[in-house]
Specification:
The structure is a homodimer of 645-residue chains. The first copy, chain A, is of the alpha+beta class. The first copy, chain A, folds into four domains: 114 residues, Orthogonal Bundle (Butyryl-Coa Dehydrogenase, subunit A, domain 1), CATH 1.10.540; 137 residues, Beta Barrel (Butyryl-CoA Dehydrogenase, subunit A, domain 2), CATH 2.40.110.10; 143 residues, Butyryl-CoA Dehydrogenase, subunit A, domain 3; 182 residues, Butyryl-CoA Dehydrogenase, subunit A, domain 3 (Up-down Bundle), CATH 1.20.140.10. Chain A has 22 helices and eleven strands. In chain A, strands 1, 2, 3, 5, 6 and 9 form a six-stranded mixed sheet that branches. In chain A, a hairpin with a 2-residue loop joins strand 5 and strand 6. The C terminus of chain A is likely disordered.
Amino acid sequence: MIMAETAPSPLAPLSCEAVAALQALLDGEHAATRELARSALLDLDLGLADSLEREDYRDQVLQWCRALAKSGAGARSFPQRYGGEGDPGGSIAAFQTLAHGDLSLLVKVGVQFGLFGGAIERLGTEQHHELYLRDLAALDLPGCFAMSESGHGSDVRSIRTQARYDVAAGEFVLHTPDESARKDWIGNAARHARLAVVFAQLDVAGEARGVHAFLVPIRSESGEVLEGVEAEDCGDKMGLQGIDNGRLRFCAVRIPRTALLDRYGQVSEDGEYTSSITSPGARFFTMIGALVQGRISIGGAGIAVARNALTIAVRWGERRRQFGTGLDMDTPLMDYLTHQRRLLPAIATSYALQAVHDHVTSLYVAQLKDPQPERQREVEALAAGLKAVATWHTVRSVQDSRECCGGKGYLAENRFAALRADSDVFVTFEGDNTVLLQLVAKTLLSDYAAQFEDLDAVGTVRHLTTRTVSRLLEDSPLGRLTRESTDLRSADWQAQAMRFREERLVDSLARRLRRLVKEERMDPLRALSHVQDHALAAATAHVERLAHQLFAAKVAEAADGPAAEVLTRLRDLYALSVVSADRAWWLEHGYVDADTSKAVQTEVNVLCGELRPAALGLVQGFGIPDGLLRAPIAVAEQHSGAGTD
Amino acid sequence: MIMAETAPSPLAPLSCEAVAALQALLDGEHAATRELARSALLDLDLGLADSLEREDYRDQVLQWCRALAKSGAGARSFPQRYGGEGDPGGSIAAFQTLAHGDLSLLVKVGVQFGLFGGAIERLGTEQHHELYLRDLAALDLPGCFAMSESGHGSDVRSIRTQARYDVAAGEFVLHTPDESARKDWIGNAARHARLAVVFAQLDVAGEARGVHAFLVPIRSESGEVLEGVEAEDCGDKMGLQGIDNGRLRFCAVRIPRTALLDRYGQVSEDGEYTSSITSPGARFFTMIGALVQGRISIGGAGIAVARNALTIAVRWGERRRQFGTGLDMDTPLMDYLTHQRRLLPAIATSYALQAVHDHVTSLYVAQLKDPQPERQREVEALAAGLKAVATWHTVRSVQDSRECCGGKGYLAENRFAALRADSDVFVTFEGDNTVLLQLVAKTLLSDYAAQFEDLDAVGTVRHLTTRTVSRLLEDSPLGRLTRESTDLRSADWQAQAMRFREERLVDSLARRLRRLVKEERMDPLRALSHVQDHALAAATAHVERLAHQLFAAKVAEAADGPAAEVLTRLRDLYALSVVSADRAWWLEHGYVDADTSKAVQTEVNVLCGELRPAALGLVQGFGIPDGLLRAPIAVAEQHSGAGTD
């Protein structure tokens, strides 16, 4: 039963060339934009966040945001004529890089340029662009994005703010019917926003036309809340104190007909509603789909935050010596297996998930240039899956990193407090992670949908589709899977194991649903709830398979470079950590036997031993300047205090 | 491959009698003391914590602490003649109950009465008791416990503060030789403490006598830091802002000979050192062992904090309705399987771990009355194991609970921010969890130690022993394990599975170490690091087995009571969640087959369905008054804001 102990062959510490190659791989095609974002952040005095009172901090964040806008690291997404760079891919890369700095600033950038500006750009037409984009890109017009309501967080389609067209006046009347329709958690709404993009149910001549977006002025230039609008602060939060989240209510506020963001639905002066998309459902999902950049961006930010935490922990783990009775007096914490197990697989995951982020960004950019319904659905599912998997990775990595730094990690100056508190909301905003993974699962199931008409009752299923499953089945039908080789370090073995799990989970999920609905006559909704854990497992398996596949491709491309050796091991570590964590599944399905399963765990330890000398280089590859890390234990010897070195 | 879907038979909502029975089971023999602690907390205006500035908050916490002392909920541990109740068991129960309130106050209580007072009581002699216990119990003498040093967190034996006996003056000279010997993270040191218990290396006539504790005045009655002492604030922390953690340095500070806490080692006027314990190692571990109450208490507090979080999440999950397109408009979040899976097993764990807490408390109290070396080692290992397992349970439960409450959970008013930030340090203070689990593993290994003389080089192993393994092997030798029955809901099946895992993990750990050291001639320290993950797994398996065993016994005792049905299911859910989480291990070792492994997961879901109607009652059983929960989403309908109900 005892496994053979394989002695690891440790890598050498990474050369400068190898570190540069790692950073180049992570920075990708937008390296120059990322560099711009880093230097723009370094020009700000981010340490002010630690000392300012809440309202002053918020105003400071607004000023920082303006400075970023000037630097070109803010609103790169917009066309050049409106002060942007016409570069949505660069904009997403810049946003991810900004996540190495202050997270309130990051979210302010996201609210102003991404949500508020993005809605006007993608849901509005040229008249709106001309009127607003220039000012908002320069932050002369701070705005907010008022979608969520108190009673309707994850379900935008059911919001209840009213927008009735008054044909006599040629105006819309925006109204909040009750407290559950109050706009809630709206960033910028409590203090800074002057204009709001408000999502409401459009009523034209007594006919419900579904959710549309409207431009509603909420504050004067001098900052007074306008008549008919009520704004209040959401109050203290766990983190992101630099963001003025607020609640908004509208009491029969009148706005001109031109205030409808009318790209997908128009109302004529005499009250005629037109839209190029006839199905209200399709129209809704088209509008929402136009806003997918937010989820891609939060997924990317989550990866970046995890990198900050892991960098601090690895640097401290290298410096801090563990003294002990009879222990080697010169043993850095990083030499301990538990330390390696907590940090190195998380580092590998941070590298692997970046490949998904790059991929979905490319798809999204291609989609903006040449919209295709199939690709749009792929982008939406991937953005949802990445956001969920990446932000849970953030929470775990920050927590493990903090614990690896012991009491030092509990001191506010070492940054974990802020990293943790500020990023915690990533897992529930821009779509709750649990809900997002169900969305991914429904996409994966769509190829089966035709067989289960009943499932259509679930509603969303019919709006989602994917070719993923069928494509997978074509590429590598179950029958063709070869399990002859169990070389755990072969990318093929890893890929096949991940593919097998994804396919089987989707297949069995579909069968279970079918049986419950068809044979047991269970209500489709109850059936979906009944298999919710299965759906989440399938969705996670999908994202993990894709992360491995995309990262392995990058590793293959880098095969001649100076980082080839370390990248191969990173890929192996990512794959085998994933397999190890869920190895019960592969055991249960007969894909691995007990010895292989144990060997996977041993191999994770061996890989940790091999990668250990490269740990510092691996986090250097994340490319975070000391001035952004800011943690004394990671940066300045003289500040660290614990003078054991 | 598709499992049969077992339809759960949901329990009815719990009756008042059942809830009362649950609370009685958790409150245990110290129910009256717990009630006293609850009402003492309710008398304080704990909401002040949310609005006060840091230094004011700290002073407020000191005042609260005084009020608790007066109420009798503070220093119950001390003899009655010094203002206590001579009731260490009640003191531990009261401490756990106080964890339902403000955690800075909790830690202040722990520092003043537990660490500072406990050290004087357990390491001092009657002269010290007479001089100090009365005043410190009334909080007329605030003090601190200065053990940890910047360079020596988890390894007290290597601290480097010096205490040289000056025979001419009849005084000790306390000195901090360098920055790594600076006392660090000392609660009460930055602001309130007037007297410090300082741990230092005793040097008598040039001979090193090891770590001893000394009473060193550090502040005048008016609060000025005394000459020769330097005190500074550790600065802002992630949480526990109400605690004035500080750093202390001593520059040749002179204290009288009587300031040595001399229960285990004495220095005569003319400089003769005596001790009833001849081995310096044994003496050190005896002194440290006398302070084990701290770890028991933190484990208990961790369980209590998890209960607060779970109560808030379940109450919100019952009230919050998930609206959705085509979804039943009246589905509480608690009806969703993912919600149940996140909260109900955590609730079961909270119940089960309480049984360990009660058990170790009883052993500890018995040990105080009738000290026995064997039992002392059992108490120390159990305290370490409980503390690690319980506080990681806290971190996970608070995080899952916060996520289950979405944006509402991110609002400070709903308490997760404070619960999370304040309790996070539990996993690394009073012994880092990773280090503590290794201590447990070494205890488990001790029966093997005789076979591996080399392991003695590790040092600590020889000071730890246990009869656990041999006792286990006697009770249920591997050969006798019957696996005929796979009734997952049988306490016997559960117990045998847990026992099998623990025994095998300890056995294989010992074999691996032996092979590495004997055959591969690996340095014992490297060998231990090499198998660190294995050691942690063995220690965790030990605590989980014990939790099940002790909880199952309580459930059996309650078999005639009104909560019998729900308790049986809680036991099953605890056991099967544990098995499900680590089912790969049982699969790998041939203890379960693939079908049983899948059945375990299905059964966890079925149990969640059965327990779901009892969820509210289960958290009511935690016995936390609304005034201590304080979260609007859990308490006051009118404050909840999200007006969906």
